[in-house]
Amino acid sequence: MTEGAKVLLGDDSALARTMIARALKSLGVELIEADTGNKVIRAINAHKPDLLVLDISMPYPDGLTILRKIREDDEFRTLPVIMCSVESGNMTRTEAEVLGISGFLTKPLDMNLLREMAKEAINTHKGMIDN
Fold it and tell me: For 38-56, how does the pLDDT look when each residue is reduced to its tens digit (9 = 90+)?
């Protein structure tokens, strides 16, 4: 069910985007990439993704700010979001979880776990849309 799903990847690290893109493309998804927070916000509105994979430490604005904006928007309130961070701090993770993320991964990422989380989030989201 992930085949053809749109995944938006927001990360300011080109290396991280390359590695994550490789892992997600193996699921057959259409991948859209953004390297700043403002580009992520524009891409969400333009592409209406089925999943957002988002780094917390993004510039202009950061990932948590983007997540707050998404959750305030009726159109994207239920958009699945997998947050990624080099920090595993409980405060950041707890705030993201309160905002309704689908998963949280600490860098360096376990790509197998990322693929599993992505499949589950996309399938759950598509099931909600189809019903």
Answer: 999 999 999 999 999 999 9
3-state secondary structure the chain: CCCCCEEEEECCCHHHHHHHHHHHHCCCCEEEEECCHHHHHHHHHHHCCCEEEEECCCCCCCHHHHHHHHHHCCCCCCCCEEEEECCCCHHHHHHHHHCCCCEEEECCCCHHHHHHHHHHHHHHHHHHHHC
C-alpha to C-alpha distances, 92 to 14, 108, 130, nearest whole angstrom: 23, 17, 33
This prediction has a pTM of 0.94
Nearest residue to 84 via CA among 115, 63, 60, 68: 63
Q: What does the longest C-alpha to C-alpha distance in the chain come to?
A: 38
Task: Report d(CA 54, CA 75) in Å as an integer.
Answer: 18
The domains located in the chain, with CATH, are 6-130 (3.40.50.2300)
